[in-house]
């Protein structure tokens, strides 16, 4: 991040926040000394503006095929997002899920990330999950039934 900002940093408690006008990154600077803002050091960057723009939606898996070209065991998923249409994704979820158990299963995915090429396959969405104790992915899904394409908030 550039040291130059449009506005001076804003003090919030023990932190100062500085926003980069070019990409929206917010940097939190921890207070290390009392005095002018140039005496404040350290901190971490958090992509708040990018996180706010992330769009997650609920979809239903309509097809799951093995992905033998992938470096780690994975499946090629075809997911119906209702009004958004059908999108494809590669997911490393073979430990807990087989092809038969995934078809018809609701999943949650980020739909507005740029497509990513994984070998010969173009992954259009990022399917979301949580890691279990062994570091394997457990897919996220809604508790109640909602229509495909429902926004996640």
Protein described:
It is a single chain. This protein folds into two domains: 10-52, no CATH class; 56-139, Nucleic acid-binding proteins (OB fold (Dihydrolipoamide Acetyltransferase, E2P), Beta Barrel). Helix content is 7%, strand content 38%. It contains two helices and 13 strands, in the order ββββαβββαββββββ. The protein has helices spanning 48-53, 99-102, and strands at residues 10-12, 15-19, 26-30, 44-46, 56-66, 75-80, 86-91, 106-110, 116-118, 121-123, 126-127, 129-131, 137-139. The longest helix is centred in the first third of the chain and has 6 residues, at 48-53. Mean pLDDT is 77; it is low at 4-14 and 29-43.
Radius of gyration: 21 Å
| Class derived from helix and strand content | mainly beta
Task: Specify the CATH class of the largest domain.
Answer: Mainly Beta
Beta-strand share of residues: 35-45%
Helix content: under 10%
* Oligomeric state of this protein: single chain
* SSE sequence, one letter per element: EEEEHEEEHEEEEEE
Number of helices: 2
Largest sheet: 5 strands, antiparallel
Mean pLDDT: 77
Number of domains: 2
CATH architecture of the largest domain: Beta Barrel
- How far apart the termini lie comes to 29 Å
């Amino acid at each position: 991040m550039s040291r130059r900002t449009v506005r001076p940093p804003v003090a919030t408690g023990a932190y100062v926040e500085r926003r980069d006008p070019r990409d929206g990154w917010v940097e939190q600077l921890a207070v290390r000394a009392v005095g002018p803002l140039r005496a404040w050091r350290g901190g971490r960057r958090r992509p708040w503006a990018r996180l706010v723009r992330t769009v997650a939606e609920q979809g239903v898996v309509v097809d799951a095929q093995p992905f033998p070209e992938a470096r780690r065991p994975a499946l090629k998923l075809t997911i119906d997002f209702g009004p958004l249409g059908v999108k494809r994704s590669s997911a490393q979820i073979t430990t807990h899920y087989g092809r038969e158990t995934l078809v018809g299963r609701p999943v949650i995915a980020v739909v507005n990330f740029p497509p990513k090429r994984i070998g010969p396959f173009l992954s259009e969405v990022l399917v979301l999950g949580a890691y279990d104790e062994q570091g394997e992915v457990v897919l996220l899904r809604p508790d109640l039934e909602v229509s495909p394409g429902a926004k996640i908030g």
